[in-house]
Amino acid sequence: MKFRPHFRLHRWLVLLFTGSLISAMFLGQVAHSLDPAQLVQQGIARYEAKNYAEAIKTWQAALPAYSKDPTNQAIVLENIARAYQQANQNGEAINTWKQLIAHYRRDSNLPKLSRALIEQAQLYSSIGQPRQAIALLCAPEIREKCTNTSAVQLAQQIKEDKSLAAAFGSLGDAYRLTGDSEQAIDYLNQALALTQNNPPYRISALNGLANAYLSRARLFSRRAESAEARAPRVSTGEFTPQGEAARLTQAAKADEKQAIKKLEESRTLAQSQQDYSGEVRSLLSLIPIYIRDKDPLASSLLQPAIELLDKVPQDRARIYATIDLARYSEDPVQAETLLKTAIDLSTQLQDNRAKSFALGELGMLYEKQEKFEDALKWTREAVFAAAKIQDAKDSLYLWEWQIGRLLAREIKNTKAAIAAYERAVQTLEEIRSDILSTNADLQFDFRKTVEPVYRELIALRVRPESTSSQLKQQKTEPSQPVQSRENIARVLTTIESLRLAELQNYFGNDCVIAEIRRSPNNVTTEAGRIDLIQQVVANSTQNRKTAIFHHILLPKQLIVVLSLPAQEQHTISVSMEEEDMRDKITKFRQGLERVSAKEGFDQTLAKSLYQDLIQPVASYLKDNIDTLLFVQDGLLRSIPMAALHDGQQYLIQKYMVVTAPSLSSIDVTPFDRSNLRALALGVTESVTLQDTKQIYRKLDSADSELKSVLAELPGSQRFDLRKDNLRNLIKAYPYPIIHFTTHGQFGADPKDTFLVTGDGQRLTIVDFEQILRERSDTRTPIELLMLTACQTGTGDDRAILGLAGVAIQAGVKSALASLWFINDEQAAAIVQQFYHNLRKPGVSKAKAIQKAQIDLIDKSVHPGYWSALILVGNWL
Predict the structure, then answer these.
(1) Residue 608 has pLDDT above 50, yes or no
(2) What is the predicted pLDDT for the residue at 528?
(3) Strand partners for 33
């Protein structure tokens, strides 16, 4: 259910570390009132006794005696740095390694410098900062080349296989943690090739390589699910979504087999070397694979792994291994014994971070056994342990969440539960950028380990006990008002935080959050976010008035929040099953995509969704409201709200419609029309992707669409879209509109969110973001990104995050993009009409697309053609 750190520490430098300690024992005598060599030896004894704090004090007392002996001074500092790491004082350890690195650079001691860089990099990876690790290990100027001052290049210069294997292995591990499995596999294979005669290093390389293969297998599986979700639609080429899903599923299975093979080899080698720690690491990676595949081998491997624990060093890695094995055990008594053993060892080692995880797991075990008072007691102990240290907040939020869950579900104390959930959310907000941008495991597990914290808090806030008299219970009515203004504010703040977390998790970096923070509307506090709602609502030109809809999907209800000008808000809770709503949304979307002139369009689901999403608050929409801004939730982002029907007309016929991934992301400054030109880029022939051989057919109306852009926006420029020319074109033509006419796809992973270029390349949204941010002329902001031939998975609410966040990630104010591939002749017509409307004085982006869509409605065009294009972001 929850993310935990796993016992995957790779002991690349174990021999170097031992050597440094032994060297320290033979430091020469120095004249001083205290014998420094004796102090050093006392420090070693205390270190070996796991008394790291005293070891540090002892070695620090010895340091002044070596002020004139920099070589031995450096040896003592190395040992202090490692003791800090063992004591979980990572900040002090990093600072000490920095001192050593500066010292070795001054002395041009390349072997020592390389090893110090590697050890500091490993520390960065272990505390969730793998990008910092990559900077030390490689510092690539370009992706394939490391700089001369990096650990990799230094190890190559000194021609020491052990150091180079450690550098490549550590670099591979760091890339895996960032989610780049391809790079991880490449570097770990290079490390493996250097370890033929070094069993300890080979065991680590095999384990690391196996974990990289498992990470890539999970990515392939997720991409296969996304492709499967696109399967109901008509393919744009010979390469069908079904075929893509089958290929990716097969690739995932192949990677899993490779992982198992590497782990078995590692285990066999560890057994031959009596490397019990290496054998445990292999087993801890094998067991969950077999559990997931429901293979009986899992249970047969569990007991040997438990028996090996007594043979491994009593350190932090052993604690986490014990916790993992407890989680894998199906025997509650055995699991309880293991967790209590882990608690005892972490107490002995004074490791509060590890102790927090052990205590929290024990609380969860008691929860499963319905021993709720015991569960609450041990979970509170876990919170207490985590609160003692600065860098244990990733465990702190888990156990605060667990307390909230216990109080809400079992002990029935809603007020206390809400307080616990709010503490969990606050803690999560403090560390969100770190864990969502750098922890690939947590990126995969977001829906299990992060999202529920926000949603469960919202559910508590809107249930009767949390709002007392403000929530009117009327069992005979399907819709119930939630009128507490404070409650509404907190609900919106929570859902806004979740929106940002989803985007950050999807893109796997902090560019989204950084862009939001640079926005003139940036808000970081709860009060600021609520004020922003009023700011967005009030921001209007030519007397236009805007209403904001938040729809929040919970397992048993839909929350509709309507925000109006003059600080007016209304919130309704509609009873419904989430799965029923998801099924309705999917069928509605599929009905729009299945365009058929003969059958026409069945408005049944369009009317039903209007009743669910708009009708509960429709009476509050005053006559002066002409724009609806939707900040949607989950799968709701995959449907065009413009196509909802009230029984008389489509929503777009009455209101301008715009969507946004979050309120914080909207830049509401008006459109500067003084330079209304576009850089028009397109692909006018069929294209075969070079990597997958997927065929994208020719867009027959691409040429006429691009010509219409030039005709409607004089001064615009048109070019063929190629990946190698885009960077130069965007710099040379800093126009406010960038128009793409080419096939595009929004997938479950940013690597599957791309445009097809004429040279058979993928232009991913990440690539595009990097290119746009290189544009030097910041005085001309990119107002609009037009994408007319894109597609997203029908039932894939993760894929839709790519579309929702495209404007933010690309650094533009708004995007007009298609949810599914539409007839390119119709697309060309609506695009031409949009630009024609946009040129008129006082016509906003939202008004321009509304008029273009209404024009097609008046011509009885199927909504599958005109509703696919949605406006995201700024609508002015």
Answers:
(1) yes
(2) 53
(3) none
Q: What is the pTM of this model?
A: 0.86
Q: DSSP letter for 28, please.
A: P
Asked if 649 contacts 612 with a C-beta cutoff of 8 angstroms, the reply is: no
Backbone angles phi, psi at 873, to 5 degrees: 100, -140
What does the alpha-carbon distance between residue 257 and residue 220 come to, in Å, rounded to a whole number? Answer: 14
Cα(488)–Cα(471) distance, integer angstroms: 12
Closest C-alpha to 706, from 733, 724, 684: 684
How far apart (Å, rounded) are the C-alpha atoms in residues 826 and 830?
Answer: 6
Q: At what angle do helices 36-48 and 70-86 cross, to 10 degrees?
A: 20
Distance CA 254, CA 318 (A): 31
- Tell me if 652 sits within 8 A of 645, measured CB to CB: no
* Token pair in block for residue 144: 């394939």
Nearest to 137 by CA among 123, 89, 200, 195: 123
Query: Minimal CA–CA distance to 434: which of 132, 68, 685, 165?
Result: 132
pLDDT tens by residue, 156-211: 999 989 999 999 999 999 999 888 899 999 999 999 999 999 999 999 999 999 99
- CA–CA distance, 123 with 394 (Å, rounded to integer): 17
Beta-carbon contacts of 549 under 8 Å, excluding residues fewer than 6 positions away, are 560, 561, 562, 613, 614, 628, 629, 630, 631
Q: How confident is the model at residue 9 (pLDDT cuts 50, 70, 90)?
A: very low
d(CA 518, CA 821): 33
Picking from 316, 363, 356, the residue whose alpha carbon sits closest to that of residue 335 is 363
* 756 beta partners: 762
Kindly state the DSSP code that residue 389 receives in the 8-state scheme: S
Angular region, 408: left φ>0, alpha ψ -120 to 50, beta rest: alpha
Beta-sheet pairing, 627-631 with 687-688: unpaired
φ, ψ dihedrals at 754, nearest 5°: -155, 165
Structure tokens at 862: 């199927």
DSSP H or E run through 788: strand 784-789
| 133 CA to centre of own chain | 19
Residue 238 to residues 688, 695, 699: CA-CA distances in angstroms?
10, 6, 14
CB atoms within 10 A of CB 535: 15
The separation between the first and the last C-alpha atoms of the chain, rounded to the nearest angstrom, is 43
Q: Which residue has the tokens 């927090």?
A: 356
Dump pLDDT digits (tens) for 434-481. Answer: 666 555 565 567 888 899 999 999 999 887 644 433 333 333 344 555
Two structure tokens written together for 218: 């999970």
Q: Which helix (H) or strand (E) holds 814?
A: strand 814-818
Q: Which residue's structure tokens are 């040997």? A: 304
Place of tokens 């300890």: 200
Q: Do 467 and 420 contact (CB within 8 A), yes or no? A: no
In contact, 769 and 797? CB cutoff 8 Å: no
Domain parsing of the chain, residue ranges = 464-659, 673-873
Rounded (10°) angle between helices 110-126 and 151-158: 150
Distance, in Å, from the CA atom of 271 to the CA atom of 277, rounded to the nearest integer, reads 10
Q: Pick from 154, 18, 21: which is nearest to 75 by CA?
A: 21
Query: Architecture of 673-873 per CATH?
Result: 3-Layer(aba) Sandwich (3.40)
